[in-house]
Design a protein that fits this description.
Helix content: under 10%
Distance between the termini: 58 Å
Structural class: mainly beta
CATH architecture of the largest domain: 3 Solenoid
CATH superfamily of the largest domain: Single-stranded right-handed beta-helix, Pectin lyase-like
Largest sheet: 14 strands, parallel
Radius of gyration: 20 Å
CATH class of the largest domain: Mainly Beta
Family: Belongs to the glycosyl hydrolase 28 family.
Number of strands: 30
Number of domains: 2
Strand content: over 45%
CATH topology of the largest domain: Pectate Lyase C-like
Main location: secreted
Number of helices: 0
Pfam families: Glyco_hydro_28
Order of helices and strands: EEEEEEEEEEEEEEEEEEEEEEEEEEEEEE
InterPro entries: Glyco_hydro_28, PbH1, Pectin_lyas_fold, Pectin_lyase_fold/virulence
GO molecular function: polygalacturonase activity
Length: about 290
């Protein structure tokens, strides 16, 4: 399928449903697709705009633009806003060189997929646009994201329960909330996230860098997590925050080669450390609750 260059198409919600007989499915975006505004969605009640489901070996690429008509939704924070692009049970998925702007909610959602490659994508929304995650990943494995720009009003990347083998490299993030694992442990559900690697990423003007979020009253266990080579400035006073569950705590935390300075000159930075254990080395501001390594 191809969206031709120089053309703009307003699309009502649609679903591309597999399984497909072909070994390779190409969706080539050269023009522009535009979502209906909020008033045009009134009778639809759908949570996703464009959905691909059970379409394996799918390639979505092109220099066109995906316009989510977000400004018509953002003032009504409680409304059932749609995700722009959703991929469910799409194994061996590739997303490359696409641009998504002004999504009503998430720009891209990846759910129950195995083997995903995302590169050279641009995802943009204003910093005050609510819940406009760049990429939201759930129940998926072997996901590789690299060489991309994500600047939104929420998480640049959100990694939820059931994910493993997530590799994020050379991603420029900001504005937004940074890169987040969780929230985990809602409704006392047992969730696992493992083997998440973040390398050579830039966070500019984000509320956080990288964070793990758990529900405070849950029994989620966070262990063997390493934060190495974080350098930059912090807008918030709490530059490092290890606020772990009272039930399980955080164990085996490693902070190494970290240098965070205040974004505003003369402002003091703080460290929050509750129910956490591990080691710290060459880290500014100092983290006194962890064991210092020479």
């Amino acid at each position: 399928m191809q969206i031709s260059s120089g053309k703009t198409f307003k699309l009502q919600p649609l679903v591309f449903q597999g399984p497909c007989k072909s070994n390779a499915i190409n969706f080539r975006l050269l023009g522009k697709i535009s979502a209906p505004d909020k008033n045009e969605w009134a009778e639809n009640k759908k949570e996703k705009w464009v959905t691909f489901k059970e379409v394996n070996n799918l390639i979505v690429y092109g220099s066109g633009i995906i316009e989510g008509s977000g400004p018509t939704w953002w003032k009504d924070v409680e409304s059932e806003r749609p995700t722009s692009l959703a991929f469910t049970s799409c194994d061996n998925l590739q997303l490359k060189s696409i641009t998504s702007i002004n999504s009503a909610k998430n720009h891209i959602s990846i759910s129950s997929c195995i083997g995903v490659t995302i590169f050279d994508v641009t995802l943009i929304a204003p910093d005050d646009s609510p819940n406009t995650d760049g990429i939201n990943i759930a129940g998926s494995s072997q996901v590789n994201l690299f060489d991309s720009f994500i600047g939104t009003g929420d998480d640049c990347v959100a990694i939820n329960g059931g994910c493993s083998g997530i590799n994020i490299t050379n991603v420029k993030c900001g504005p937004g909330h940074g890169l987040s694992v969780g929230s985990l442990g809602r409704n006392q559900v047992n969730e696992e996230v493992e083997h998440v690697y973040v390398k050579n990423c830039t966070f500019n003007g984000t509320q956080n860098g990288a964070r793990i979020k758990t529900v405070p009253t849950s029994a989620v266990e966070v262990s063997n997590v390493k934060f190495i080579g974080f350098h930059g400035s912090a807008i918030k006073e709490k530059a490092i925050k290890l606020n772990c569950s009272e039930v399980k705590g955080c164990n085996g935390i490693v902070l190494e080669d970290i240098n965070i300075i205040p974004a505003i000159e003369g402002k003091n930075l703080e460290v929050v450390c509750n129910n956490a254990s591990g080691t710290v080395q060459h880290t500014t501001p100092p983290v006194s609750c962890l064991v210092a390594k020479p």
